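Tokens as discussed.
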């Protein structure tokens, strides 16, 4: 991978990371409710999931998709069901959960947040399509070297993490405007509807 190709790839990752989707909205919602610190695990989960797709794309995800379509259908439907379930929970989350409650176990909270981020990104068709269709425009996967793979992984991690941290920081700074019960209630409904809509979209994909 040349320097020019690396810069273009990193720029594409930055743009891709801030494109509206379930992962971005989940980070926004969590950061608005809890701040940047308690959003880090979710951000890392999203980033790790994307890197897994990057590696799979480099190792022939398209071949697997073509020859194991039934497996991917199960994964897609399971991901859709999870997004709908998560959206329903957010929709029905009591306002007092965001305003009053504190987690009793920080470790469990971070693990749960990480898994949510990982599964949201893993179930997002935007991620799959990006790495399957867009990745070959930057590098010849048939001549991929180990150093190319490491560099792409690093650039992906840096680009996604930087973009999501900026989003999280901006949302956390705006928390003061979302402290009333009515504002938090609207946030719950919007986040829940977005998650459920993403799940319905994923389930409808062929």
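Sequence:
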């Amino acid at each position: 991978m040349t320097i020019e190709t690396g810069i273009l790839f990193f720029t594409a990752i930055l743009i891709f990371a801030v494109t509206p989707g379930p992962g971005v909205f989940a980070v926004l919602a969590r950061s608005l409710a809890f701040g940047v610190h308690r959003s880090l695990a979710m951000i890392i989960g999203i980033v790790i999931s994307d890197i897994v797709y990057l590696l799979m794309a480099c190792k022939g995800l398209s071949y697997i998709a073509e020859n194991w379509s039934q497996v991917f259908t199960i994964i897609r439907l399971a991901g859709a069901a999870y997004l709908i379930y998560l959206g329903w929970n957010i929709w029905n989350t009591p306002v007092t959960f965001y305003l009053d409650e504190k987690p009793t176990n920080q470790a469990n909270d971070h693990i749960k947040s990480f898994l949510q981020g990982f599964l949201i990104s893993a179930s997002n068709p935007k991620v799959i399509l990006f790495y399957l269709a867009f990745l070959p425009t930057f590098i010849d996967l048939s001549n991929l070297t180990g150093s190319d793979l490491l560099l792409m992984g690093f650039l992906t991690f840096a680009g996604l993490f930087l973009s999501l941290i900026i989003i999280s920081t901006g949302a956390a700074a705006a928390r003061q405007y979302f402290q009333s019960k009515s504002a938090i209630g609207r946030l719950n409904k919007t986040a829940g509807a977005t998650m459920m809509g993403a799940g319905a979209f994923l389930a409808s994909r062929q």
